[in-house]
Amino acid sequence: MSKLARNIxxxxxxxxxxxxxxxxxxxxxxxAAPTKSTLAHTLENAPDDLTMMAVAPADFYGEQWRxxxxxxxxxxxxxxxxGGVDLEPFxxxxxxxxxxxxxxxxxxxxxxxxxxxxxxxxxxxxxxxxIQGAVDAFQLLPFARTGEGGWxxxx
Length: 155
Prior knowledge:
elongated, transmembrane
């Protein structure tokens, strides 16, 4: 191989390495979005003729969220505070979650959380009360459309 060809090959390899380093660096510095979507957005965009739908929270919140917890009406501010929950995203009336509200809290392995508020007339995750504690974010959760156009957790 001539000296010119060797220099060209060396230059191409060096340029390739630099491009790969830039790609890796920009990927590492990019901040990940906290969520991909929300439960409300997912259910609102369901086809109108769909009456039942099963969704996995990791599909719309993102795979970094490993579990979800449902916060229902009547949950007390004192109990949540005692459990180490950040109370800022929640609304309390007389020290409790109001009857028309519920929340979906996504949690990751590092203890971070994302809180989604929903009016129970739109999305009701609390009427069945069969799910207690954290739910695996990769588990399918069945939702049924109500006669009023909202959705209810059918578990």
